[in-house]
Structure formats: structure tokens, C-alpha cells
Amino acid sequence: MFLSFEGIDCCGKTTQAKLLVEKLKAENREVLFLREPGGTEISEQIRQILLNKKNLKMTQITELLLFSASRAQLVTEVIKPALAKGTVVITDRFVDSTSAYQGYGRGLHHGGVKGINAIATNGLMPKKTFLIDITAHEMYARRQASHQETDRMEMSNEDFYNRVRDGYHQLAKEEPSRFVVIDGKQPIDAIHTVIWKEVDGLLPTGDE
Ligand SMILES: Nc1ncnc2c1ncn2[C@@H]1O[C@H](COP(=O)(O)OP(=O)(O)OP(=O)(O)O)[C@@H](O)[C@H]1O
Ligand SMILES: [Mg+2]
Predict the structure, then answer these.
(1) Smallest Cα–Cα separation from 116: which of 104, 98, 101?
(2) Residue 75 sits in which domain range?
(3) Residue 14: CB within 6 Å of ligand 1?
């Protein structure tokens, strides 16, 4: 089973993905946790280019294609073989990040982004996508509180993040059965409970 976590920066994707991984391991499930962009040797090299603050000249199309190249490698090398073995695969971001950030955020043509996404994934989509929703305002507050250094992708303005957030909502509206939209302002354990309830209901039982 393939699950992904989505949402704007600092919404709690990594926090929740890790909690879910731990829970699944405690239930004796085989689980693989991957972060995007990255997850293979080639994809990690692409990640360095994408996040490098020196690469200010990077065009929006280059950015789109690099994210997609990283993902194509991850799907073929890691995700598909793991799913074939019955492993639960959890990704911290996937194809919806490209639609939301490069499509809605950067304003690239939606049909084009969709086409490139389809090529990169070879049609493979998550069974469920957890969209953790916070405002851009909340994102800035959390970023300030954690004193993290910002990377190239994080150097965008509030309008950009508002467009990305609206884009995520649009994507969720288009595929309501895949998306689970969760208010990210709730306490961490309350969000985990919602996610676990969904996942527990989808896990194959040992009798199958
Ligand atoms: N439900 C929550 N309520 C308040 N703070 C939270 C919540 N979930 C996570 N945080 C805090 O917000 C910050 C960002 O969390 P996290 O790294 O999980 O987000 P993320 O979506 O993975 O961010 P990024 O996109 O930058 O990787 C951390 O300091 C984390 O402790
Ligand atoms: Mg994270």
C-alpha cells in the first residue's frame, strides 16, 4: 500500500509520517519511508541541486523537470519493487507537491505539469494522501520558532504559499476519495489518531 503526506512547509508532514511509520512497525508491518526529492543515490544528487541556495538562476521549467526526474528514479528503483513485496510505502511529498508548488505556486501550465507527473510516476498514485492544512501565517510562525535555515525552495513570499495552499485544496476537491484533508493546527497526537484510523481500515488482514 502506497501513502503520501502533503501540505505547505512546516505543516507537520515529517512529524506525522514518522509517527505513522513507528505505529506500523509496532504492528509488525513492513514499512518503507521515503522523502522527496531524494530516496535514491541519483535522486539525492538532484535534491542537492534543487535546494542549493546558489542556484538562483534555475528556471521554473528546470525546477519542474528536476523534481520529476528525481521522482521517476524513485518510482522505478524503489517504490514499485517495495509495493510488489507487500511493503507499506510512505512518502514525505509526492506528485501533488509538483502540482501545488510548480503548477499553482509558480503558475506553470496545469495540463503540462499533469503530463510530466504522469510520465514521472508511470501512472502510479498513492492509495491515500494526507493533506495537512495550515495557513502561510502559521507556517512563518513555526519556521521562526524552529530557527531553521531556509533553503532555496523556502525563500518564497506569502502570496506564493497562499497559492500553493489553495492549489492543494483544489487537488483535494478533484480527488476526494484519495485525499484526507486534516486541520494541521490540531495537536500532533490528535492528527496522528485521525491518520491511524484511516490507515488501519485499509491494511490487509493477515488472512488474505
Ligand atoms: N500539530 C502541530 N502543532 C504545532 N506544531 C507542530 C505540529 N506538527 C508539527 N509541528 C512543528 O512544526 C514544525 C514543522 O514540522 P515538520 O518538520 O513535521 O513539518 P514538515 O511539513 O515536514 O515541514 P517541511 O515541509 O519543512 O519539511 C516542527 O517544529 C514541529 O515540531
Ligand atoms: Mg519535512
Answers:
(1) 98
(2) 2-202
(3) yes
Q: Which three cell numbers stand for residue 82?
A: 517495495
Count of domains forming the chain: 1
The tens-digit pLDDT sequence of the chain (208 residues) is 999 999 999 999 999 999 999 999 999 999 999 999 999 999 999 999 999 999 999 999 999 999 999 999 999 999 999 999 999 999 999 999 999 999 999 999 999 999 999 999 999 999 999 999 999 999 999 998 887 777 766 667 899 999 999 999 999 999 999 999 999 999 999 999 999 999 999 998 765 5
Q: Please, which residues have CB within 8 angstroms of residue 86's CB and are 6 or more apart in sequence? A: 30
Pocket of ligand 1, candidates 5, 6, 8, 10: which has the most ligand atoms within 8 Å of its Cβ, to mutate?
10
Residue 104 DSSP one-character state:
I
Q: Which three cell numbers stand for residue 89?
A: 510505502
Q: Is the CB of 23 under 6 A from ligand 1?
A: no
Gap between the Cα atoms of 80 and 134, Å rounded? 31
Output the domain CATH number for residue 166: 3.40.50.300
d(C-alpha 58, C-alpha 56), whole Å: 5
Cis peptide before 81 (omega within 30 of 0): no
Nearest ligand, CA of residue 151?
1
> Does any domain span residue 30?
yes
